[in-house]
Amino acid sequence: MTDESSSVKRKPWGGRVQEFRPQPVDLKALVELGAPVTLVQLGLMSMGAVDTVMVGRVSAAGLAAVALGNLYFLMMAVFGQGVLFALDPVIAQAVGARDSSGVAHGVQRGLILGVALAALAMLLMIPVNPLLTLAGQPEEVVPIAVQYVHGLILGVFPFYAFGVFRQSLQAMGRVRAIVLTVLVANVLNAGLNWILIFGNFGSPRLGAVGSAWATSLSRWFLLGLLVALAWSQLRPTIRPWRRASFDLEPIIRFIRLGAPIGAQQLLEFGVFGAAGLLMGLLGTVAMASHQVALQLAALTFMIPVGVAQATSVVVGQAVGRGEPEAARRAVGAGLVTVTAFMTVTAVTFIAVPVPLARIFSNDHMVVAAAAALLPIAGVFQIFDGLQVASAGALRGVADTRVPMLLNLVGFWLIGLPVSALLGFKLGAGPRGIWWGLAVGIGVVAVLLLWRVRQRFLRSIQRLVIDSTQT
Hints:
By secondary structure, the protein is mainly alpha-helical. It has 19 helices and no strands. Helix 3 runs antiparallel to helix 14 (284-321) and helix 13 packs parallel to helix 18. The longest helix has 38 residues, at 284-321. Residues 1-15 have low confidence and may be disordered.
């Protein structure tokens, strides 16, 4: 592959912008993969949204417990999930290079790491009671949240295994089975919630804890149905099992690539988690309103997440084919797409916050508090889309360490301190905490866009995992 960095450096800034301008074919390629991937993201997110809607009809304490329980689960599980996101560049680039052995090794190493990461996450979910108590969370919420987290432990392994197969199939461009699986699982999850939360069909009325058991059972269903539907595509990557998949050096390289992604995910989820803990210090209503507003923001965020994953795959495949120009245009396609969508959601959040909040709760105090937060979410929507799309593009070229550090700076060194300052020191309460989040997201977006410009205007080489790979 030729090094184009010297010729690129002589171009003026306007010429550099042209490097990223997508053509219709680039937008078409992104949409063809991004639409089903985004549908999958929305489907997975809607399972959590249904949990929130149904529990919100039980009590504010139950809603706050779900928020706290999900926060704890994500803090324990999201690092491992991020590590497995290394499958995006590993498999996508192998697909682009027509390296079937590289694809199989990637899937098998993903499964090996998935088992280890699931065991670790399950162990970390056991001591939830003392940790939540130590964090000063509301007394009426902690016991419910503890039972909720323990109910999620059953579903940790299928959570990771489904993630491995899903990332692998997406990187191969095979997403139909994933879409169908998620759609069917949503129906099952809603039915299980209706039975277990409200005590229908003779089941005990478990309230918020029932949604945890429904989630765990649905995750096992997700895994089983996906394997059944996609077995013809997965079988060549699993059978025969290759002894080289256990080789330590490639696994260490995989971890070195994935660990910064996991850390980046943890930093991003963690800052929202820390904001949730700050909300808990302000009371049950503040925590419940945070959950409502965050659920809505997270729901719209799934569109950029889907676009980002598709961008990562398209970029990775272009790199595998040895086409850096196509990789740059794919980045531009991703950024244009998320900006257009998030502009629409920003206007919606600002214009009609109260009706949106009422979808998730019938408690007047919770609705009013959440409606005050949604316009702030509207402000940071575009920046949120840009930062996740930029991170996805960088992941496609296996650039993971610098984005992790930029997340640390934006979210933790700037955003969270501003949240604490505005929310408590200056007395702005929940709105101040969310304005701090907006500042952090804006800083991260600007820094990652800078990194995209810097990284993609240099020579782009294929990622090397196996020592025999060329």
